[in-house]
């Protein structure tokens, strides 16, 4: 069907209206059938995600309008009832795209009607309303340029072969002396990562391991509200995710914390392009690492930059400059770049020495990167920049069309990593099961680098017969202790004095932690009397720093947390520890989080069980240091246990609880916390790791009169971690503004809460309370001291006298669940609060019937 001749006029000047729905309806009405088909196809992936929460309603409307048959509707609803909402959404769109234009118009009309309750749909509709067909037309225009000129076909083939050879293998570090690096096929080892089309704006000043738990909970909360969208790597360019209207090109920023997989993801993107899987509209892709660009200490132009890395281009580059729309430049690791690129600095646009508008212009490397991203050099080309969150602020004023963030592994992606890490799938299953059962290790495993450490540390426990599985590490310190133990076991015979070398290496590591330094040069090794050796290479990675005049080697620990652990270990190897208490106090006083994990490792290494494996190779830890560390932890707990009025005080006491947990010193915990009556963390966000630590520490206490967790955002997962110890709390305060059921949970049924105040729980939580999916004991008052764990879920209600469920949006389905429990003759509930639960007239009749059949129960509605 012919396109509407007025399309351009309409999309550039849409009629204004006070009602946003009338505006989008006008646009959809003015679309021809062909345009609506193309629009649906363009936004299809995002519509699939957005529609998951309301797919039943859309299908019902299409069925009512007779575009779907009853059988088609049943197929969709069956999938949603099984929890396969993604599949049901995909099926619905498949059916709609195969129907006539009327079905598509009804579907879009339903999107308009439900937009306010579905944030993802609302976002798509706003973009359609703002941009019309602009981005779609731009993508189509670019696709028309995808035919490679004949004079470039040979060099393109050579380029793809080169990139394919460079990216087809993945090098993975090991701790073995004979095989320090293993090489795998990328396709065999690569595990998919979750990437979202947004970047959180919080400045990450906390340690990445600590910040992650909070960020992950925040993401899951937003995901449940259907706000954040997943984005595939092939959607970073020329897709509906592009946020800015630009005729001069497209730039994308990909963010992620250290070790999350940014560089590996870039490798996968380049490999997929070279093998023809993604981005057919890009004729050439050029990938650079900022770490390599740091070696350029003179002015350079874009032509020489490409020719130095890809010499086979020769003089043919001039032909590439003619069509910049088909070029993609990738710059990996902005946070590692030695030069600061401030996109808010207008001097780059006005001062001649910074201006770079021609590929032949000789400029500073930073000016070339700046000019490419801002489309002043080769306007029309596309640029991808990766960075840690700490350097993202530099891009705030940049011309970025797509912002994306790597969240790491979510859900089954963790399991996939371990399945690919271990050749023996039985070992992979055993290691993953251990990680999954340990809250702290599991929360760490969102990050591929942590998974690598987990695999190296835990693997031997499930592959070597002489290892006892009951000794498998459960704290972070134990995990890293066995990581170092395995290195010493493989490299220990290479050197006469491993204790002395590790002491000096640890002192260098501590200086690095203090100065936020992770890259060490040869002069640093000399300063600490270290020499490159097989032994040293077991702990530190050698990186070849590319230089156009010479080559130099720099050294770094495989991960920041390993550097922090070695720094902590050195404190126990030093024969003259000096004033260790002063060092610990000063480190604890730093507010930027740089020493938090270091201090947890120090506390953890005071445990004989944790230190034991290392002492086999390094000799006994200094007893004097162990005693002083224990004294310091005791001093921290006793000094802060009463300072819980401020958020800072609450965070400090939570950190000291982490020290207690890592130390695994039950006697110390009982001495310092045995008589504590009140613990308050109200207003402080608690991660699942925090809740697991609280559970461990409170478990060593006698009885807590009052545990205050109001507005701690603990969610179902956090409550599950706390479950085994809540019977020790006489009063639990747990108020939340928005609680979300993250997963069906089963809490130990011997757990009871004598008093719980939790008046704001959404209906899904209540379903967990009274359904076989799992039991959340949330609002129990005057309950007895024990219930057998063998009782069924309804039996738990038999010991309750008062139950508060007001303001829960139970609805009529909740009435049915309550009725089933209350009709049990052994039920002891006498008073039930059900105010503001959105009951229909039918539900109210059911409640009335419930009161008549159960006169012993007083129901307040």
Descriptors:
alpha/beta; 18 strands; six-stranded mixed beta sheet; disordered N terminus; 861 residues; 39 helices; 49% helix; four-stranded parallel beta sheet
Based on secondary structure, the structural category is: alpha/beta
Fraction of residues in β-strands: 5-15%
**Average of per-residue pLDDT values:** 78
Q: Which consecutive residue ranges, at least 5 long each, have pLDDT under 50?
A: 1-17, 201-214, 546-550, 737-802
Q: Note the total helix count.
A: 39
Report helical residue fraction. Answer: 40-55%
Strand order of the largest sheet: 3-8-4-7-6-5
Rg, please?
A: 30 Å
Note the overall shape. flat
How far from one another are the termini? 59 Å
Biggest sheet details: 6 strands, mixed
Number of strands: 18
Write up what this structure looks like.
The protein is an alpha/beta fold. The longest helix is centred in the N-terminal third of the chain and has 18 residues, at 150-167. The protein starts with 6 loop residues before the first helix and ends with a strand.
């Amino acid at each position: 069907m012919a396109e509407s001749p007025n399309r351009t006029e309409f999309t550039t000047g849409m009629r204004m209206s006070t009602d946003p729905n009338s505006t989008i309806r006008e646009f959809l009405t003015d679309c021809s059938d062909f345009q609506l088909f193309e629009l649906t196809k363009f936004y299809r992936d995002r519509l699939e995600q957005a529609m998951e929460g309301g797919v039943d309603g859309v299908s019902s409307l299409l069925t009512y309008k007779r575009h779907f048959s009853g059988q088609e509707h049943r197929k969709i609803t069956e999938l949603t009832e099984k929890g396969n909402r993604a599949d049901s959404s995909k099926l619905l769109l498949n059916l709609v795209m195969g129907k006539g234009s009327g079905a598509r118009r009804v579907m879009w009309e339903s999107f308009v009607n439900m937009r306010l309750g579905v944030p993802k749909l609302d976002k798509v509709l706003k973009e359609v309303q703002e941009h019309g067909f602009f981005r779609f037309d731009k993508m189509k225009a670019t696709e028309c340029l995808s035919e490679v000129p004949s004079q470039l076909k040979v060099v393109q083939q050579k380029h793809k072969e080169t990139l394919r050879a460079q990216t087809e293998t993945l090098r993975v570090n090991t701790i073995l002396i004979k095989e320090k690096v293993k090489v795998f096929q990328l396709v065999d080892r690569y595990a998919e990562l979750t990437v979202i089309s947004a970047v959180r704006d919080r400045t990450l000043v906390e340690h990445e391991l600590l910040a992650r738990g909070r960020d992950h909970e925040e993401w899951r909360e937003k995901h449940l509200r259907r706000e954040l969208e997943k984005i595939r790597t092939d959607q970073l360019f020329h897709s509906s995710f592009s946020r800015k209207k630009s005729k001069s090109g497209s730039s994308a920023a990909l963010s992620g914390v250290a070790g999350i997989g940014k560089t590996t993801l870039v490798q996968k993107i380049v490999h997929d392009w070279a093998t023809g899987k993604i981005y057919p509209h890009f004729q050439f892709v050029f990938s650079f690492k900022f770490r390599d660009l740091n070696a350029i200490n003179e002015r350079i132009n874009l032509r020489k930059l490409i020719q130095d890395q890809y010499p086979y281009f020769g003089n043919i580059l001039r032909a590439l400059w003619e069509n910049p729309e088909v070029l993609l430049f990738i710059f990996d690791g902005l946070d590692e770049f030695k030069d600061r690129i401030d996109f808010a600095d207008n001097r780059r646009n006005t001062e001649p020495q910074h201006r770079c508008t021609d590929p032949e212009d000789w400029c500073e490397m930073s000016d070339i990167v700046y000019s490419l991203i801002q489309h002043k050099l080769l306007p029309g080309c596309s640029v991808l920049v990766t960075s840690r969150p700490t350097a993202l602020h530099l891009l705030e004023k940049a011309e970025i069309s797509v912002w994306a963030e790597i969240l790491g592994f979510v859900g089954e992606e963790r399991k996939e990593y371990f399945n690919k890490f271990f050749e023996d799938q039985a070992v992979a299953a055993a290691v993953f099961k251990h990680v999954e059962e340990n809250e702290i290790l599991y929360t760490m495993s969102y990050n591929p680098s942590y998974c690598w450490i987990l695999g190296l540390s835990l693997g031997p426990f499930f592959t070597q017969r002489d290892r006892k599985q009951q000794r498998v590490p459960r704290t972070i310190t134990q995990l890293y202790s066995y990581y170092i133990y395995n290195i010493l076991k493989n490299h220990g015979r290479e050197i006469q004095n491993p204790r002395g070398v590790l002491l000096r290496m640890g002192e260098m590591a501590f200086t690095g932690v203090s100065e936020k330094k992770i890259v060490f040069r040869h002069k640093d090794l000399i300063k600490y009397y270290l020499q490159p050796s097989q032994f040293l290479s077991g702990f530190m990675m050698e990186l070849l720093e590319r230089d156009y005049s010479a080559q130099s080697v720099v050294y770094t620990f495989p991960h920041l947390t390993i550097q922090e652990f070695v720094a902590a270990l050195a404190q126990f190897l030093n024969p003259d520890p000096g004033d260790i208490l002063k060092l610990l106090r000063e480190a604890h006083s730093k507010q930027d989080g740089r020493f938090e994990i270091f201090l947890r490792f120090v506390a953890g290494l005071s445990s004989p069980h944790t230190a034991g494996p290392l002492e086999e190779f390094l000799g006994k830890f200094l007893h004097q240091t162990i005693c002083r560390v224990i004294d310091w932890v005791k001093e921290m707990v006793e000094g802060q246990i009463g300072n819980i009025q401020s958020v800072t005080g609450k965070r400090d006491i939570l950190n000291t609880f982490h020290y207690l947990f890592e130390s695994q010193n039950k006697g110390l915990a009982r001495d310092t916390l045995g008589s504590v009556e009140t613990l308050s963390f109200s207003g402080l966000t608690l991660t699942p790791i925090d809740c697991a630590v609280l559970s461990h520490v409170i478990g060593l206490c006698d009885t807590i009169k009052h545990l205050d967790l109001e507005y701690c955002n603990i969610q179902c997962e956090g409550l599950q971690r706390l479950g085994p110890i809540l019977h020790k709390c006489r009063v639990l305060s747990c108020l939340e503004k928005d609680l979300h059921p993250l997963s069906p949970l089963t809490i130990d049924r011997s757990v009871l809460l004598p008093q719980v105040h939790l008046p704001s729980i959404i209906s899904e939580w209540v379903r967990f309370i009274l359904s076989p999916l799992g039991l959340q004991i949330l609002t129990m008052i005057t309950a007895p001291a024990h219930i057998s764990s063998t009782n069924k879920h309804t039996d738990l209600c038999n010991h309750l006298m008062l139950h508060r469920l007001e303001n829960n949006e139970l609805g009529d389905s909740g009435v049915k669940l309550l009725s089933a429990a209350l009709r049990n003759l052994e039920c002891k509930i006498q008073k039930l609060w059900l105010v503001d639960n959105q009951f229909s007239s039918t539900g109210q009749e059911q409640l009335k019937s419930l009161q008549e059949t159960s006169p012993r129960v007083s129901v307040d509605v």
